[in-house]
Amino acid sequence: MKREDAVRSTYDAYNARDLPRALANLSADVEWDDGEGNMLHGKEAVARHWADQWRLVDAKVGIDRLAWRGAELHLAVQLDSRKPDGSRGQQSLANTISFTGNLVRAMRIA
User: Fold this and answer.
1) Fewer C-beta within 10 Å: the chain N or C terminus?
2) Are 61 and 11 contacting, i.e. CB atoms less than 8 angstroms apart?
């Protein structure tokens, strides 16, 4: 699987709430930006974070654009969320992905 495909598969699985498939393309020592100024370390921490997010908010992430800059993949993404009270929100984000082989090693939100 190419790196771009691994990223798309991870985001698609996140949207489908398919935790095993979402984690499959992450390295064991992954570092994942939680969007609140913290870096999560390891698949277990990412899994807990995603499960918590799914309980609190119905969020979907769409990839608008992928671009390589050196060894890092830069994504323009749209976060579309609906809270339990029914309110909706959209947010444009820039994510930077680094890899170990074809596995996601780190995701940072710019």
Assistant:
1) C
2) yes
